[in-house]
Amino acid sequence: MWQNPTRINSSFHEGVAKTSDIIGSSASRTCNVGGIQRRFVLSTVGACARLFTSVLSRTRVHNLQTLLDLVQSRPRDTPLVTVSNHMSTLDDPLMWGIKGLPMTNPKLSRWTLTAEDICFTNPLFSYFFRLGKCLPIRRGAGIYQPYMEDALDVINKGDWLHTFPEGKLSQEDGPMRRLKWGTASLIARASLQPIVLPIAHSGFEKILPENFMFGRRPFLPLPFKNITIVVGEPMVFDIPQLRRTAKAMTLTDAHRGSPNCKDKWNESVGKSFQDSNRVGFSSLSYDGATGGSAGGTTTASVEEKTMRWMYSHMSENLRCLLQELVVKAKQLNYVRV
After folding, report:
1. Per the database record, which ranges form the Phospholipid/glycerol acyltransferase domain (predicted)?
2. Going by C-beta distance under 8 Å and a sequence separation of 6 or more, which residues neighbour residue 183?
3. CATH 3.30.1490 applies to domain 11-207+227-336
4. What is the per-residue pLDDT for 92?
5. Taking Cα atoms as reference points, which of 15, 77, 60 lies closest to residue 332?
6. Is the entire prediction scored with pTM above 0.85?
7. Is 232 within 8 Å of 195 (Cβ atoms)?
8. How far apart are CA 221 and CA 208, in angstroms?
């Protein structure tokens, strides 16, 4: 069934999973919010990130105040989900080294999803990244894997979660690839409605290029590069309305193909958080989301197709927003060169 995650049975992944569970849970117990170990890790990494972005690089941030306001003074019990493009393995933490963001307060720092097979490969790494408020994610294991429940708990507690919905980094100069459905599923399943903030950046791919020399990354990040970060406008998805629309589209089997970004963001879609506190969709359909005819299907299959439709359209609209911001960030960064 679509709801079940893909099983990964290799001994390597099983060993990593056991290590992550044991060490990760230990980090959670010993370093709750305010714990001295977590504060030390966050402060040290944050100071290094700030040194690099503020002193060793030329960083410019557009619409920074929006990010600062949401991080420091958003309504209580209101989660924040930030999403961004992924250009290098140092996007996080470098993008949070900008001036104004809190470095030493674990309550205000972001949680982020990190690849299990990179950051949680041994007990030391697992403990360090857990202290740094990183959550493991098993690539290829689906959006209902157990690790996603940890991310969902973060949102349901009203905390800040950052994701890279592309699923992997890309330094290619072209349109953003189709987003994974994990971020959309977290937003849709959360018991607290999160504010979603898209952020785009350009320049990190120059700091740690994948093909620097002989097809390898540089041993150390390259200094004195231009970095441009563009913070978008906050938005909130109207999940009840989305669910009703998705179910209606599934039951009526009204296929009109997958609309592009320009088609989707019409007057009923592109409303900001300040304008309406909701983002809904017009009566659009997506063949890949509904998966064929809904006639004669069971309640379970209708629900499955409904969720597919929601996740697909939410992800596509996030991709459109991010794409616009990425283009802007690249243009601004190019002007500075």
Report:
1. 80-204
2. 81, 83, 163, 165, 315, 318
3. no
4. 94
5. 60
6. no
7. no
8. 5
Q: Which of 320, 281, 47, 63 is nearest to 175 (CA)?
A: 320
Length of the chain equals 337
Q: Which two tokens stand for residue 144?
A: 């209902």
Helix (H) or strand (E) holding 23: helix 11-30
CA 77 – CA 156 distance, rounded (Å): 8
Residue 324 CA, chain-centre distance (Å), reads: 16
Which residues contact residue 303 at a Cβ distance below 8 angstroms, ignoring those fewer than 6 apart? none
Closest CA to 234 of 96, 114, 78, 86: 78
Place of tokens 């674990």: 106
Query: What are 25-64's pLDDT values in tens digits?
Result: 444 443 444 489 999 999 999 999 999 999 999 999 999 9
Calpha distance 219→221 (Å, rounded): 7
